[in-house]
Amino acid sequence: MRNHLRTFMLLAALTALFVGVGYMIGGPAGMAIAFVLAAGMNLVSYWNADKIVLSIYRAQPVDETHPDALIRNYAADVHGLAEGAGLPAPKVYVIENDQPNAFATGRDPNHAAVAATTGLLRMLDRREIRGVMAHELAHVKNRDTLTMTVTATIAGAVSSLANIGLFFGGDRDRPAGMIGTIALAILAPLAAALVQMAISRGREYEADRNGALISGDAEALASALQKIEAYARGGVPNYDAERHPATSHMFIINPLSGQGADNLFSTHPSTANRVAALREMGGRAPGRRAAGTAVPVTGAGPWG
């Protein structure tokens, strides 16, 4: 219920922002058009936003029959972890990208997908990959994926609408005017980012915690987070994320860090704080499982 309420509030805030931008650019007529567009986007994004995001990153479906052993093990581990967590088997995707990163998407656990970059599969060991994918499955179990995916769609649309206003310009007959339209093109995307940030930080901590329970190996996730951030900050960019910054909150680590993005509006908490929280859990969940198995998430767990 809490996640459904959060999703509703987020959609309401982003829809109001989208409609407000429409009014500032085109007055009452622009507001009406923006409202119709927002209603359509809410409907389309609920059913298809996962496909849109996967398409943006040119994600390719894979399974345990893949000829590459690295990808084969990755798919098998995702399905094993999902089974241990009591989740339906998600669709598994690979993104051809050198930056190690991953995300989950889908409107509910029955329509979920997880995606990892080839950089992540190459640069992390199997334990760390399992830790990352357990984090993504925790988002699925917590039903965060609908919020994450719909937010990416509408926040991106807010930025696009603001840019349209900039190019087609306000005039004195429009509420924003030219100066207001320029300001809008700058401020509207920032406002959308603030809405995203409002729900992201606590969500990531919770997914870290539940991911450690799913994999039974908090230390593996902590190690993976450190490596992913080091590669991103070390100059391994994700150009698709740079072109679509509204999707950055979906990844386990901010993919914009590779270009030295300003973290003032980061949707991710500090990696150091996340690692510290994981290590406070005791390093590893009791009885760390072998690859392909997991511990079910049934409650608060041994760390409260």
- Provide a count of the helices: 9
Number of domains: 1
pLDDT under 50 segments (min length 5)? 258-264, 283-304
Radius of gyration: 20 Å
What does this structure look like?
The chain has 304 residues and is mostly helical. It has one domain (2-280). Helix content is 62%, strand content 6%. It contains nine helices and four strands, in the order H-E-H-E-E-E-H-H-H-H-H-H-H. Strands 1-2-4-3 form a four-stranded mixed β-sheet, with helices on both faces. A hairpin with a 7-residue loop joins strand 3 (102-105) and strand 4 (113-117). The longest helix is centred in the N-terminal third of the chain and has 55 residues, at 2-56.
Quick structural summary:
It contains 9 helices and 4 strands; from the N terminus they run αβαβββααααααα. With 304 residues, the chain is mainly α. α4 packs across α7.
Write the layout of secondary structure elements.
Elements: H1 2-56, E1 60-62, H2 69-84, E2 91-95, E3 102-105, E4 113-117, H3 118-123, H4 126-141, H5 144-168, H6 177-215, H7 218-233, H8 239-243, H9 271-280
Parallel strand pairs: 2-4
Antiparallel strand pairs: 1-2, 3-4
Helix pairs in contact: 1-5, 1-6, 2-4, 4-6, 4-7, 5-6, 6-7, 7-9
